[in-house]
Amino acid sequence: MFDLHKTTSLGRQGSLHTAHGVIKTPFFMPVGTAGAMKGITHKDLNDLGAQILLCNTYHLHIQPGDEIVRDAGGLHEFISWDKPILTDSGGFQVYSLRRNNKITDKGVQFNSHLNGENLFMGPEESITIQHNLGADIIMCFDECPPSTDSKKDIEAAVDRTIRWAKECKEIHEKLCVVGSQRAVTLQRPLLFGIIQGGLELDLRKKCAEELIAMDFDGYALGGLAVGEEEEEMLRVVEAITPLLPEEKPRYLMGVGVIEQMKKCVATGIDMFDCVLPMRIARHGTIIMSDGSQVRISKSEFLKDHSPIDPDSPSEFSRELNKSYLSHLLRSGERLGETYAQMQNLGVTLKAMQELRQLIENEHKES
Questions:
Q1: What is the rounded distance in angstroms from the CA atom of residue 160 to the CA atom of residue 146?
Q2: Calpha distance 185→133 (Å, rounded)
Q3: Residues 48/352, Cβ–Cβ less than 8 Å
């Protein structure tokens, strides 16, 4: 399942084995919310070195419906992607609808963002949907409270997260038997527990210890990178990551800033995902190979006919000029968004590739 090959001052390097291939850690997951990334093909993802795709349980449940995906042979067949897929629990999206949801110990009552339909999601619903989707890695249903909530409210969310994790594992084990008969996936999906607790270290520790005792296939830190300062996020990561089992993969959810990922890898984190690199690209900000950021949609770049980024992993950025990309984005052309996203995603994935190599080199020299 997970082989830890080496640990250095830069971080851990290992291999995560899934039904659809081996993923080299540390790694970044592009977010294909509904089974696709905006304006980027699966071939583009492969060319840039993506090892895995993250898809969203809530959105796929709402549209087209997880049973439709199941009947198509699972998400891999439905979207024609032959590499690993991770599906999130749907919890973050449900809780983002905080104004119109009702949380109970059984789950969350909420309204669809598409048509207002009244819906319910709890541990059984989340795990069942993810089994229908047939992902390689699935996540426990959790409660993700804002870090600004009172400690009392955060503690209540942690208690629900722990109870729901236990239910998720029980449901998962039952469905794995059915899944083996149905053969949607080649092998049972890996189930990760999610550690909540806001910025309260004692609650984070409590949640981690309870989940570790349940023996999940991997562990995630959730509820971070949601508005807190970077120092606050790192304080939690540095305190909790060393508590997690060395032989299990460690996942920091929602972080995709390259320098932040490097700092977190150094603490022992293996996996990341984030929509940020692609979101800022669509709004005209590109990440250069040297780590700097450029607001390419500014008018000053209309007269800059130099290549977008000569060292880019993206062929488009090596061949096209800044002036052209600036023009496309300022004109609202969707092709401009694709070129910008290819740049940002390529640089982000390359940074993780280079970090894996640096860990390898440091290990050889030690």
A1: 15
A2: 9
A3: no
For residues 270-296, average pLDDT: 97
Which fold does the domain 2-274 belong to in CATH?
A: TIM Barrel (3.20.20)
Q: Is 3 annotated in the active site?
A: no
Q: Give me 251's structure tokens.
A: 């996942």
Beta-bridge partner residues of 13: 6
C-alpha of 48 from chain center? 17
CB 65 within 8 A of CB 363: no
* pLDDT 10s digits, 261-276: 999 999 999 999 999 9
Residue 251: closest CA among 34, 56, 88: 88
| Structure letter (DSSP) for residue 198 | T
Residue in 88, 136, 142, 309 annotated catalytic: 88
CA 293 to chain centre: 22
Residue 206 CB neighbour total at 10 angstroms: 17
Q: 43 vs 171, 203, 334, CA distance in Å?
A: 35, 43, 18
Closest CA to 73 of 178, 175, 181, 183: 183
CA 47 to chain centre: 20
CB–CB of 197/223 below 8 Å? Answer: yes
202 tagged catalytic: no
pLDDT digits (tens, 9 = 90+) for 70-83: 999 999 999 999 99
- Given CA atoms 251, 257, 259, 260 in this order, what sign does their dihedral have? negative
Q: How confident is the model at residue 145 (pLDDT cuts 50, 70, 90)?
A: confident
Catalytic residue, from 66, 136, 217, 273: name it: 273
Helix (H) or strand (E) holding 71: helix 66-71
Beta strands in the chain (DSSP E): 2-8, 11-18, 21-25, 27-29, 53-55, 85-87, 102-103, 108-111, 118-121, 137-139, 190-195, 218-221, 250-252, 271-273, 285-287, 293-295
Identity of the amino acid at 51: Q
Render pLDDT for 45-60 as a digit per residue (tens, 0 to 9).
999 999 999 999 999 9
Residue 226 and residue 168 in contact, taking contact as beta carbons nearer than 8 Å: no
Instruction: Give one word for 90, left, alpha or beta, with left for phi > 0 and alpha for psi -120 to 50.
Output: left
Please state whether the peptide bond connecting residue 146 to the residue before it is cis, i.e. omega within 30 degrees of 0.
no
**Identity of residue 361:** N
**Domain range annotation of the chain:** 2-274, 276-366
